[in-house]
């Protein structure tokens, strides 16, 4: 079983599409940070972004179907 589970991530973001957008934005920021810092981590940026979302470190604005 992989951590974090896709079900937990979708609950946090509201939909699969919101999850993809939030993950991509965070992964890009991580990529930009590693380009400016020597000695980058071996963890992939997308995996790290998903872990951060699962741990609640990344806030997802407007989650849920009723959000406008």
Provide the descriptors you would attach to this structure in a database record:
single chain; 68 residues; mainly alpha; 3 helices; 0% strand
Provide a compact summary of the structure:
59% of the residues lie in helices and 0% in strands.
Overall description:
The protein is mostly helical and 68 residues long. The protein has one domain. Helices cover 59% and strands 0% of the residues. The protein has 3 helices and no strands. Helix 1 packs across helix 2 and helix 2 crosses helix 3. The radius of gyration is 13 Å and the shape is globular. Belongs to the RNA polymerase subunit omega family. This is DNA-directed RNA polymerase subunit omega. Pfam families: RNA_pol_Rpb6. The RNAP catalytic core consists of 2 alpha, 1 beta, 1 beta' and 1 omega subunit. When a sigma factor is associated with the core the holoenzyme is formed, which can initiate transcription.
SSE blueprint and pairings:
Layout: H1 6-13, H2 16-36, H3 45-55
Helix pairs in contact: 1-2, 2-3
């Amino acid at each position: 079983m992989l951590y974090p589970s896709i079900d937990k991530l979708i609950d946090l973001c509201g939909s699969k599409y919101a999850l993809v957008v939030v993950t991509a934005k965070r992964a890009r920021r991580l990529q930009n940070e590693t380009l400016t810092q020597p000695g980058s981590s071996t963890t992939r940026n997308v995996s790290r972004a998903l872990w951060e979302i699962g741990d609640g470190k990344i806030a997802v604005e407007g989650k849920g179907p009723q959000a406008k």
